[in-house]
Write a structure and sequence with these properties.
Length: 796
């Protein structure tokens, strides 16, 4: 072809290799056309050139894709790019290259469908391509056919009734459907369409394909939909699923317009729980109302860079939860003390600035709950491990703790519990007063002194304490072998106690003496003295913020938060109310094995006593970078990913994030830059979706530390006379429902219980039931349904 261009433009003359038409075969007219063609090209009119020109004029015109390719050549190349290299056609499936595919068609549809009825198919873990062929029917033909079908249905029903037959229920339904369809078609309020539905499944093997088919059939069977493979027409069916707008199979069903709208499941079903709280709005601006207490686990993980809106979102959820549920108590641990104290004050909550006269006992113990006993979790062993790990965290800030010192501490912890009459495995003794760190320190001193007898002589312990241990069968001379620490009571009140406590070796004594100076910070006047004593926190408010800012610059934050986590778990177990606990800066806890174990224990058993745990961190990477941390993350049924500059590879792999989702996280709206924030919401039930978090004007004044809700009320409602937001008496011109007073949880519970016993209280949301058609609900003629008229000879 290039050679032809050269000849045409005189770049090169014809040669022996160039095709031509002999001059003797040319007519006079053809010869003259060839000569004229040569004149146009300014070429000589030699015999050779005339023969060449005649051939050029007789050749078919060739379309060009570009200077180097004809359209035919480009078409062949495009086919090779799009089409599979190998296609094996089988009666019910195909093998295309390295994959197995099967095309199915819908053979039966339900009488009625509702919004989102195909969503389970979309969310199924299968490689599925769903194709619809939609052709509108002519209204005039539809009316004529429906009128004929309606007449036939009425006549058939009348004949059956005249003969006394009772099998007329289906005929009555058909007649009613046809009558309704005919009326609406005549009025022009609906239309009918012929719709063909095809599904293509693609798998790596026949076994995988069969598994996919079973899952798809099970999903559609719940919707009363029947499928069938397109037999002996798989190649023809390829045209039906390919974007070439042809349907050689032509397996259509008559579908009503209203029902056809539900076939395009591009919108996921809304997240709505009547007992939930508004979290935000999804991509379609529908409200997302979620009740975390209705999920299998009640815990949540929130990640996002500073300023992304995660703290604002958490406060908004708490505020709305307090309004919606009088039986919930929210406890927040704020390491920085700059996000939540003002929020609690606005709502009449309680702010505890930990570090003053407040004390939390990390050695608090309670009997295991029923759920813990079922899983074999003994709170005695769990508490000892938690205390030792807490001290490990503390000693890591100094010169560390050796394995030998850890063993001595374990025995000292056992000593502390035994000194209070608390015996491992005897759950009834767990109700006694718990020991404190002073008791553990005394256990260390007993070992350092040389055992029980030597400690009594050195006045480390008193006679009563020595007699208590002797009552358990400890004499100080009969234990010839090291016995396991702690144990179960034996007959006659004897228990197993380690020789490390009774008659420690010189090595154990030296280890104990090395530990003694490390407890100075827990003694009176020390920075950690708040962890040495019986817990004296009295939580009378439904909203409590623990301000930990006094420990922010001391390096003791991991230690304090570990102790607080242990206390929060016990508080959740003991409380008769729902307890919602939040830990900001959760990375302090995720880095310690015992803290992670305690978090997992909390989350696993939280549903048994309606408690929830919320963990917040700067990045989602903090939750997924190790398998141990990932276990905690997976136990959280609700996850929110706010703005982040980058998304780690581990996070991408954990979620299987698409490139669009990654871009969304990296460009999500931030509260500090706009009047709303965005996050990626993931739940164990609803999957993932994008969330837009917005608050109302009054809510914003309650949540924003720089704003005053009372000023807003004064400006918009004309309410004045409030000197401080914490006043117990509200002004006379404000309704109690205008500003929630969350101070007294006991009063709220009493009111809630009183209300639940009153008769005649019925909360109904009108319009919701009629908004979505149900397969079994045929009462409303306006339900979204499609009519599948009974088959007749002329209507396929």
């Amino acid at each position: 072809m290039i050679q032809r261009f050269k000849h045409a433009f005189g770049i090169d003359g014809p040669d022996a290799g160039v095709e031509s038409v002999p001059i003797d075969d040319l007519s006079g007219e053809e010869t003259q056309h060839a000569i004229d063609y040569l004149h146009l090209l300014d070429r000589e009119t030699t015999t050779e050139n005339i023969e060449w020109a005649a051939y050029q004029l007789q050749a078919d015109e060739v379309g060009l894709a570009n200077a180097m390719e004809t359209l035919e050549e480009r078409g062949e190349l495009d086919k090779r790019l799009v089409a599979p290299r190998l296609v094996e056609d089988h009666p019910q499936f195909q093998i295309r290259d390295d994959t197995v595919s099967q095309i199915l068609t819908v053979t039966s549809l339900p009488r009625k469908v509702g919004l989102g009825w195909l969503v389970p198919l979309t969310l199924a873990d299968v490689d599925l391509r769903l194709t619809f062929h939609v052709r509108p029917r002519e209204p005039k033909d539809v009316r004529r056919q429906l009128q004929k079908r309606y007449t036939q249905a009425v006549t058939s029903l009348a004949l059956k009734q005249k003969r006394g037959r009772t099998d007329t229920y289906q005929d009555q339904l058909d007649r009613e459907d046809l009558e309704r369809l005919l009326q609406r078609t005549i009025r022009g309020t609906t239309k009918l369409y012929d719709v063909a539905i095809y599904l293509e499944l693609v798998a790596d093997s026949r076994d995988d394909l069969d598994g996919m088919l079973d899952r798809v059939e099970a999903i559609l069977a719940e919707q009363d939909v029947e499928l069938s493979p397109v037999k002996h027409q798989q190649l023809d069916a390829m045209d039906a699923v390919a974007p070439v707008v042809t349907d050689p199979v032509d397996n259509t069903h008559p579908i009503q317009l209203e029902a056809l709208g539900t076939f395009f499941n591009l919108v996921e079903p809304s997240i709505y729980d009547p007992n939930g709280v508004l979290l935000g709005f999804d991509d379609t601006k529908r409200p997302v109302i979620l009740n975390r207490y209705a999920l299998s686990g009640h815990s949540m993980a929130i990640s996002g860079k500073t300023g992304s809106g995660k703290s604002y979102f958490r406060k908004l959820e708490i505020y709305r939860r307090l309004l919606a549920d009088p039986n919930v108590q929210c406890i927040l641990f704020d390491p920085a003390g700059d996000d939540y104290p003002r929020f609690a004050t606005s709502l009449g909550g309680e702010v505890i600035r930990f570090g003053g006269d407040y004390t939390v006992n990390p050695m608090d113990i309670s009997p295991p709950a029923t759920s813990e006993q079922e899983t074999g979790d003994d709170t005695y062993a769990l508490t000892i491990r938690s205390v030792i790990e807490m001290l490990h965290t503390h000693f890591d800030q100094r010169d560390g703790m050796s394995a030998g010192e850890e063993g001595v501490l374990i025995q000292a912890a056992h000593y502390a519990y035994i000194s209070k009459g608390i015996i491992l495995g005897d759950f009834e003794t767990y109700d006694q007063e718990s020991p404190t760190l002073d008791d553990l320190i005394r256990g260390v001193n007993v070992i350092a002194a040389g055992g029980l007898e030597a400690a009594r002589e050195a006045e480390v312990i008193d006679e009563a304490e020595l007699e208590l241990f002797q009552s358990y069968g400890v004499t100080g001379t009969e234990n010839d072998e090291e016995q396991p620490a702690g144990g179960t009571p034996h007959g006659g009140g004897s228990i197993s106690i380690s020789d490390t406590i009774v008659t420690p070796t010189d090595h154990h004594q030296e280890l104990a003496r090395n530990l003694q100076p490390k407890f100075e910070s827990f003694k009176p006047g020390g920075i950690n003295n708040n962890l040495n004593g019986q817990t004296n926190l009295d939580l009378s408010s439904r909203l409590v913020v623990m301000d930990m800012s006094s420990f922010a610059d001391t390096g003791e934050m991991p230690l304090i938060l570990h102790a607080m986590l242990s206390w929060a778990y016990l508080e959740a177990k003991r409380s008769p109310y729902k307890v919602d606990v939040t830990f900001d800066e959760a990375h302090y806890l995720l880095g310690r094995p015992a803290a992670r174990d305690l978090i997992n224990l909390y989350i696993r058993h939280a549903r048994h006593y309606e408690a929830g745990l919320t963990l917040m961190s700067q990045t989602s990477h903090e939750f997924v970078r190790t398998n141990e941390r990932r276990e905690v993350y997976e136990n959280c049924d609700v996850k929110c990913l706010f703005y982040a500059e980058s998304v780690s590879e581990q996070t991408q792999q954990y979620y299987g994030l698409s490139s669009d989702e990654i871009r969304f996280i990296q460009s999500a709206a931030r509260g500090q830059d706009s009047d709303y924030s965005e996050c990626l919401l993931a739940t164990s039930v609803h999957g993932r979706r994008r969330l837009e978090v917005r608050s109302g004007p009054f809510e914003h004044h309650v949540l924003d530390d720089a704003l005053d809700p009372w000023e807003w009320l004064a400006e918009t409602e004309g309410i004045t006379g409030v000197d401080a937001p914490g006043d117990d008496v509200l002004p006379a011109d404000i309704e109690l429902t205008d500003l929630p007073h969350v101070m007294n949880r006991d009063m709220d519970l009493e009111m809630a219980m009183r209300e639940s016993h009153e008769d005649g209280i019925n909360v109904a949301i009108e319009g919701l039931e009629n908004d979505t058609s149900d397969v079994n609900n045929g009462d409303s003629p306006d339900d979204s349904d499609y009519d599948h008229p009974p088959d007749s000879g002329e209507d396929s």
